[in-house]
Amino acid sequence: MSDRRAIGVFDSGLGGLTVVKELRRVLLNEDIVYFGDTGRVPYGTRSRDTIRKYAAQDERFLLTHNVKAIIAACGTVSSVASDLAKDLPVPYFEVVSHAAKSAVNATKNRKIGVIGTAATINSGQHEKHIKALMPEAEVTACSCSMFVPLVEEGWYSAEDIVVTETVRRYLEPIMKSGADTLILGCTHYPVLSGAIKKVLGNDVTLINAGVATAEAVKDYLDNQGLLNNGEKIGDTDFFVSDKPDSFRRIASVLLDSDIDDGKVEQVNISSL
Ligand code: DGL
Question: Which residue, among 133, 141, 147, has the nearest Cα to 174 in the 3D structure?
Answer without folding.
Answer: 141
